Amino acid sequence: MAVREPWHLDRRVPIALIIAIFVQTAGAGFYVSRMDSRIEQNTRDIQELKVTQEQDQGNADRRFKLIEDKLNSQGETLARMEERFIAAMNSLNRIETRLEKLP
Q1: pLDDT per position as a tens digit, 58-87
Q2: What is the pLDDT of residues 7-56, one digit of tens each?
Q3: Which residue, of 21, 34, 69, 103, has the fewest CB within 10 Å?
């Protein structure tokens, strides 16, 4: 079995390679930290949008209820108008019948 030597840095490794690896590692660390801050910002934005959406939904529900109430009121008014129209038509029919009976 071969005897293993402890790890050591050889002079044959160029300093440019060491610097390049260091710069890449630092760049990757910077990129990851920026990504984390963007993710945190997106999370905050999503939470704000959820709150806004809930408020908008509440406003829309109130508006729909108001519209529904107005439509119901108009339906009732229309029904009363129809009843009055039928009563008026009946009165006109009675008047017409009486006029026909006159000599």
Answers
A1: 999 999 999 999 999 999 999 999 999 999
A2: 777 777 888 998 999 999 999 999 999 999 999 999 999 999 999 999 99
A3: 103
Convert 33-67 to b/e letters by CB count within 10 Å (16 or more is b): eeeeeeeeeeeeeeeeeeeeeeeeeeeeeeeeeee
- Cα 84 to Cα 50, 68, 77, 87, 89: the distances in Å are 51, 24, 11, 5, 9
